[in-house]
Amino acid sequence: MFLNAVKYMLGLEMNAIAVTPSPADKATDVPSDAVLSWKPGLPGQKHDVYLGTSVDDVNAATVANPMGVLAAAGRDANTFEPADPLVYGKTYYWRIDEVNTTPDATLFKGKTWAFTVEPFSYPIKNVTATASSAQPEMGPENTVNGSGLNASDQHSTDGSQMWLSAGVQPNWIQYEFDSIYKVDELWVWNSNLQVETISGFGAKDVMVEYSVDGSTWTVLAGVPEFTRASGSPDYVHDTTVDFGGVLAKYVKLTINSTWGGAPQAGLSEVRFFYVPVQAREPQPAADATGQELDLTLNWRPGREAASHKVYLNSDSDAVVNGTVPAKTASTHSLDVTALEFGTTYYWRVDEVNDAAAVASWQGDVWAFTTKEYAVVDDFESYTNESPNRVFQTWIDGWGFSEDSFFPGGNQGNGTTAAVGYDPLAGNIMEKTVVHGGTQAMPFDYNNTLQPYYAEAERTWTTPQDWTIGGADTLSLFVRGRAPSFVEKSSSSFLMGGGGTDIWNSADQFRFASKRLSGNGTIIARVESIERAVDGVKAGVMIRESLDPGSRFAAVYITPDYGCRFQARAMTGTAATSDSAVATPEQIAIKAPYWVKLERTGDDFKAYYSADGSTWTAMIWNPQTITMTGDIYIGLALSSHTATAQTSAEFSGVSMTGNVTGPWEVTEVGVAQPSNDLGQLYVAIQDGAGHVRVVNHPDPQVTVALTWQQWTIPLKEFTSAGVNLASVKKMFIGVGDRSNPTPGGAGRLYIDDIEFGRPMPQPAGQ
């Protein structure tokens, strides 16, 4: 018991300390104007902030003994902005102590974190080199490609990783950057051959010139003598040339003398550093997508910027050319509002300087794209607990109370709809059949009962504005369940099924059949199969009875095993298949493909065909199965698992022999939920009571086994007088709302209802 108490106290202490520091622990290149933030421990705590460059001081300091690093005591906010900019290149240490409010005022000492501030200048990355001459395999490019440098910036003694001139005077090497930079300094690794201390090929007296255009050159003053290299493999740069922030795109080094006096001259590596004066590191990041319509643009500012001119437009040329009106920001951020859905925006920040040599620095052009839709309901927020149950927001025909639902309409709308599952039985939301996130809304309809339509409705206390951001589309995702059996034409059928398998000694599947007396044949083209799991089967079958253990012969198309012949010769025994003799051609078959099964007395033969005319007999032919009396001939479908539904489409179905009666649809071995066709609709009602109903154009959407996005042009509602700036109610239903007639039953899944404007599709898509 004592141990449990200790564990509890330790857990309480761990939960009470500050966590999730920003900047992150050990972060580098942190902006000099960074604002520190953290996730507080327990609610209501005060925060003591310690910040300094000595880890020992930050570790040891207290409010009573601040040691010069107590930056703030008893702070309410979980953020802290240093009064002065942080020092470039310095590593800082910081700690947050959480202090409970009275009466106990317990202090929870925090961890000590560290971060390093951005350097004053950065390496120029894109540099090309040319030279007056070079020895074979010792070209000038070796001085800027990092060859010879290890992770500690130590240079090797390998001559093929350096530049050495051919000795034709004058010896010079020239560097070109990808744009004009404000150059801070140059690091030099001199020629570092093993014989350097003897031969002295390294540069000594060097004239440095710079230019912005490659034509007009200025000599840099104060260039130091280049230090002689050690000729050892641990050589680090030992000469730094201060450029003092001159503007340059080109730099030329003319070597007037070397350490050994030889006509050849060389260098191992150079590295130029620049002061960042342009805006950089945009937020949103370049080419970011899914951005909000109201957002804050942010960027890391140029060193000398006094203000910032921001160009923003959906026309890239207007931003590139600066013809769109600019907004001036005093800080390196700008709030923008009223953007439009599904639009790519271009933006540029020009840094404006007060006293610098260059009045302004034009920035790069960045882009971001706004989200296409805003959420109406993604069904993620609903739980099993009242008042947060889905049927307390989407009112259906059952109504609800604080504890469960009530059939008959306690606050229900009187239709046959039921949304959500019973919260007392487990999850109220669908968590497996989901389009986005982790939940979808199940929607049951039963239009065999009055009033012959099913509807769920949501009412907003504050009317919604669906006209913002150029919105022109309402979108929702819907998925149904497979139908039991739908006759699309006299020879074309859509069929749904479940069940563990047609196998072993008892089958579970859906069978659509007619009666056969004597010999007969059935042909069908399996057009498509929805692969629920491995082992789905769709094909033709002749069966003695509708019992699970009945004798049968069947030929299927499967997504995983090609075309297969299968049979059960004796009632209640294990079924067998042609797996031992199946040919590679047969195994490779995929839908769409033709199959045929024929009975002649007790002999059953199976065939497959690509075109329905030329048939290939399966090696397993014939199978001898005795069936007596009138038997069953038809279409079979199994999902191969008890928890999944599958669907298949058949065409070209034909039979020969004494086939009689209508189609009978049987759930062999196990009940298999299915959907009947029904008319899906959405209706919108505005604050003034105007209503418009829009029907889904495809009546088969209720039997689709994949998620279907339904996009409805918003003009469908506004053309009927509905004010979409004041959306009061939304209805989702199945049936004919204006003229109810008896229909079918089933279950739909609804997810991700949104409004907005989709991005235009590229041409040809």
Describe the protein's topology:
Layout: H1 2-16, E1 19-22, E2 27-30, E3 36-39, E4 46-52, H2 55-60, E5 70-75, E6 79-80, E7 91-99, E8 107-108, E9 112-117, E10 122-123, E11 127-131, E12 163-164, E13 171-190, H3 196-199, E14 203-211, E15 218-219, E16 239-258, E17 266-274, E18 280-283, E19 288-291, E20 295-300, E21 305-313, H4 316-321, E22 327-329, E23 333-336, E24 344-353, E25 360-361, E26 365-370, E27 373-377, E28 394-395, E29 418-419, E30 441-446, E31 453-464, E32 473-479, E33 485-487, E34 493-497, E35 509-529, E36 537-543, E37 552-558, E38 562-568, E39 576-577, H5 584-587, E40 593-600, E41 603-609, E42 616-617, E43 623-624, E44 631-638, E45 646-668, E46 680-686, E47 691-695, E48 708-713, H6 715-718, E49 727-735, E50 745-756
Parallel strand pairs: 2-9, 19-26
Antiparallel strand pairs: 1-3, 3-6, 4-5, 4-7, 7-8, 7-9, 10-17, 11-13, 12-17, 13-16, 13-17, 14-15, 14-16, 18-20, 20-23, 21-22, 21-24, 24-25, 24-26, 27-50, 28-31, 29-30, 30-50, 31-49, 32-48, 32-50, 33-34, 34-45, 35-40, 35-44, 35-45, 36-37, 36-44, 37-38, 38-39, 40-41, 41-42, 41-43, 46-47, 46-49
